[in-house]
Structures are given as structure tokens and as C-alpha cells.
Here is the input.
Amino acid sequence: MTALSEKAMLVRLSISGWSARKYDRKISEEVADQHGADRDVGRYNKCLVAQEAVKNYQKVSNEARIFHYENTLPWKDSGERILPAANFDFYSHKMREFKSKYEVEVRTFVYVYPTLKDQAKQKLNGLYNEADYPPASEIDRKFGFYTQIDPLPNEDDFRVALQNNDILKIREDIRSRVIDAEGRAMRDLWNRLHTCVDHMATTLKDPDAKFKNSMVGNITELCALLPRLNISGDPNLETMRKEVEAKLASIDPQTLRDNDYERLKAQQEADAILKAMSGYMG
Here is the structure.
């Protein structure tokens, strides 16, 4: 088997931005006192500028994070994710697009920031506090969009001068952690596929349930993505993926809405796939 470090890498996504919200302790305490409540029962958070201006760059940030998690695999809780080499080109291309969009929205926001502050003075009135706002010359420092690529740990790279027994223990620990991570990553892929198919099966069982085209679209997208994320080359996962692609991903959602027979057929196909999948997932 090829070492995981030769098939994948670690990637960290870091996106920073100005929240444009501020906790106002004084107002929170005043409200609590007026109602005879404890001061820790609520928090008053001010919107410092018009939220429509903030939502533009937040929307790009949220889309980038969703894409990042969909196109990578779990590693640890420290922020890094596994990026298979087979998905590197696609991931990198999309991340460059997201970064470009984010920077455009940030530049627009920075340009109108002084005007937004002037408007906030009118809207907030007595709640306005100049100290809540970064200087216009520094607001752009609140934003950033970065991806960092690092190699996966490999026990063969550990060459510190220690006693042989200590080195062997450390290398075995590294190897064990990588193997465990690969197992978690593959379980994540199985769970993704199972969740999509289970959602379709559950929805179609209810004749009155309404659904969006994305119910099928999500399955189609996942079937296209799985081969690039299958870092273990799991043949069982690939077999199930092909079956899902052939029997569920090609269905017209409107046909499922209009044709009771096709709806029942698709539901039974999904149930059968779930049953077969359970044999691999335990």
C-alpha cells in the first residue's frame, strides 16, 4: 500500500473578517436593571454598520468554508484537513476563485466604510461609540484569506538522535495516528454517501413530502467528488458509488414529483442500496 503521505497532504483554511458587531455591556446591564433581572441573563449586541454591506463578504466566506469541508477529509481538531492529491487541482482552482471574490467584496467594503460609519451615527444615535470602530486606515487589516499546505506526518521522516527504542516508539505512534486518521476519513466518506441516500429514501417514502432538485443534485455532486477523495482506493466504496450514480443520480426530480411509480421505484432502489451499504458500514 502506498503511504498516505504520498497520496495526500494537510490543508488549513483561514478566513478572517470584521464582524461589525459589538457587545454593549452598559446597555445590557441597564436593560437587566430595568426589569429586575440578573445582569448575566442577556447580552445586547450592536450592529455597527448596515448588515447588507457585511453580508456580501460573509457570504463568500461561508461558501468557501463549506466547499473546504466538502472537498477535504477529517484529520484532527486543530484545523487541518486531509486534501487528497487527486483533488488538489480542483480544490486549488476553486479556492483561488473564492479568494478573488472575497478580496473584491472586501475592497468594496473598505471603500464605503467611512460612509457606513456616518450612517451608523444616525441610526445608533446615543448607542454610537467611536471606540467601537477601527480607523479607516486600518480596517483592511481585519480581513484575510489564506490556505496553508503541509505534508502529512511520516514515521520515516523522524530522525532525531534518540535511543533506538524511543525512536521506534515515536515512529509507531506517528504511524498509528496516520492509520487512525485514514480510517476516520474513509468512514466520513461512507457517512456522506449514506446520508444522501438515506435522505432520498426517507423523503420519497412520504407521498406528501416536497423536495428541492438539490435532493438529487447533491447525490450527483457527491458521486463526482468521491473518486477524488477515496484516499484508500476502497473498492467497496467505489462499487456503491457507481450503483448510486447509476440508479439515483440520473433521475429527473420532476419525474419523481409527477410519477408515483417512478417515485416508488426510486425509493425502493434507495432502500436496497442502504441495505447493501450497511454491510460495509457495520
User: Anything to note?
Assistant: The mean pLDDT is 87. Residues 164-205 form the longest helix (42 residues). The radius of gyration is 25 Å.
